[in-house]
Design goal:
The protein is of the alpha/beta class and 307 residues long. It has 9 helices and 12 strands. It is 38% helix and 21% strand. It is globular. Bound molecules: zinc ion.
Length: 307
């Protein structure tokens, strides 16, 4: 039995995965983000709780950050700063006396979609997760692609406008700044600043992607434009991936996609326009089959499959 944990900026999701890749049992706990001791003790508590009910062979942890495949140290984790420069798998293995594997959370999600989700049986796919940011993971030639030192697949930080918005990574103009939940809110604010007549003006702060989606569903023109603009950027992202990698599938997950029809239709239209017709024809763009559990399932599968 393998235990998968998906560490988010606010919540940790943990679940036991059986031999048929099904979630047997899962739970959620709040993430400690500002002190390592608290973070480790919360994780230990969760794992020990699962250990009480069933024997666990190994633990997989999906982390929102860059993990070195050489040293296994987490190099950076903007949303959970206490994890920077920490060898989380060694620390946790010492605590719970089990084999522990870590990887980037979107890489784990990509692996889950490849093994038992929308991309089962395929060899070349990208998994994009539209949440607060734009996470991504790549399956190339039938295996998870992580690059020379484990930091690969960060497509959300592809620069599309050198003079663009500031990004959570500390740089400027990354595609994540326009194609993400944060990007949706900033785009809406930019439009409202021009004095538009929109029901978004009456919404109680804070403005969120969900509230903008609700306004779009109710026919608000500005909110619909925000989703169309975001879909446009997201479609360009897909076109670039398709032309670069000749993928069979792009799988899209994330909280923003749960409210997705305004965005996905536009994204597919734009990707069709900008990608090579021959490459576009070979690539399906689909919603995740495992969302919101893809990261958690993938982490458990990585623990099982990575020796
Ligand atoms: Zn960035």
């Amino acid at each position: 039995m393998y235990l998968g944990l998906d560490i988010g900026g606010t919540t940790i999701k943990a679940g036991l995965i059986d031999e048929e890749n099904r979630v047997l049992e899962s739970r959620k706990v709040p993430t400690v983000i500002d002190n390592l001791e608290g973070f480790i003790s919360k994780l230990t508590e969760v794992i020990c709780d699962f250990q009480k009910s069933r024997p666990i062979d190994a633990v997989g942890i999906g982390v929102p950050g860059l993990r070195s495949s050489k040293t296994h140290v987490i190099a950076t984790s903007p949303n959970i700063p206490c994890l920077a420069n920490v060898n989380l798998e060694k620390m946790m293995a010492d605590q719970v006396h089990l084999r522990v594997v870590t990887d980037n959370d979107a890489n784990a999600g990509a692996y889950a979609e490849f093994v038992c989700g929308a991309g089962t049986g395929l060899q070349h796919l990208a998994y994009l997760t539209l949440g607060t940011g734009l996470g991504s993971g790549l399956i190339l030639n039938g295996s998870l692609y992580t690059g020379a030192s484990g930091y690969g697949g960060e497509f959300g930080h592809t620069v599309i406008d050198p003079n663009g918005r500031l990004c959570a990574c500390g740089k400027q103009g990354c595609i994540e700044t326009v194609a993400s939940g944060t990007g949706i809110v900033t785009t809406a604010r930019d439009k409202l600043r021009t004095g538009r007549n929109s029901r978004l003006n009456e919404i109680a702060p804070p403005l969120t992607a969900e509230k903008i989606y609700d306004a779009a569903v109710r026919g608000d023109e500005t909110a619909r434009e925000v989703f169309a603009d975001t879909g446009h950027w997201f479609g360009l992202a897909c076109a670039n991936l398709i032309n670069l990698l000749n993928l069979e599938m792009i799988v899209i997950g994330g909280g923003v996609m749960a409210s997705g029809e305004f965005l996905l239709g536009k994204a597919i239209e734009v990707a069709r326009h900008y990608a090579f017709a021959s490459s576009f024809a070979d690539c399906q763009i689909v919603q995740s089959r495992l969302w919101p559990d893809a990261g958690m399932i993938g982490a458990a599968l990585l623990a099982r499959d990575r020796a």
